[in-house]
Amino acid sequence: MQNLYLIPTLLAPDTHDQVLPPEVVNKVAELNTFFVENIKSARRFISSLKIGKVIDDITFYDLTKDSNYDDILTLMSQLSEDIGVLSEAGCPGVADPGAMAVDCAHQLGMKVHPIVGPSSILLALMGSGFNGQSFAFNGYLPIDKKERAKRIRELEKLSFQHDQTQLFMETPYRNNQMLESIIQSCNPNTKLSVAVDITAPTQVIKTQTVARWKQEKSLDLHKRPAIFSFGR
User: Fold this and answer.
1) Phi, psi of 180 (to 5 degrees)
2) What is the dihedral of CA 24, 68, 144, 91, to 10 degrees?
């Protein structure tokens, strides 16, 4: 039976020894066909493992949010070898286009193997102190200021009414604007957790009320990967 392996990648540079289990390295060494979110970063990640593979001997296929499902299904149906899926960062298939390859694999009767590795969403949830029994990841919020503020208030309300942790993210260069929007839009007593640079030496995870975030002066989020969450 043909196999599909979901292979986690790094969230922060030079953290292989801290976050990647041996199975990740072993499986990358075995496979020669990968569906990847970004070919350049996938090649860089495999090279960083120092496993002696010749990068030019590996076949990479693009798998992005714009990929066509039928095209991916047809392509996978024509392959006979085992396949690896690599996200640009973290776990493929979780807030990631790798889910499309997994769906195709199930349709084709392939055996699917998720491999343990770093997930910024789960690590942020673990470090937040919020409800880990009921939670939702909402991806990116609207760019428009009014629509973003409206969505922030909706997530704040959901977290309070249902005791359901609401996680979301922003493009790193807009993180400071996101934090400012939250401060302006939310009740001062609402709890907000921010997890930045997860798994990196510069990692910061902090949970406090919006009122205390308003007084926060030391944490600059600009161009630093971050996960935001509301909870009780």
Assistant:
1) -65, -40
2) -10
- Please, what are the domains in the chain? 3-114 (3.40.1010.10), 120-231 (3.30.950.10)
| DSSP, residue by residue, 125-138 | HHHH-S-SSSEEEE
pLDDT above 90: residue 218: no
Q: Are strands 191-196 and 226-231 parallel, antiparallel or unpaired?
A: antiparallel
pTM (two decimals) = 0.94
CB atoms within 10 A of CB 129: 15
Distance (Å, whole) CA 91 – CA 184: 33
Contact 197, 169 (CB under 8 A): no
153-159 contacts, C-beta under 8 A, 24 or more apart: 153/185, 153/186, 155/230, 156/185, 156/186, 156/187, 156/190, 156/230, 158/230, 159/130, 159/190, 159/230, 159/231, 159/232
pLDDT tens for 21-78 read 999 999 999 999 999 999 999 999 999 999 999 999 999 999 999 999 999 999 999 9
Q: Are 9 and 87 in contact (CB under 8 A)?
A: yes
Which pair of tokens denotes residue 45? 């990640």
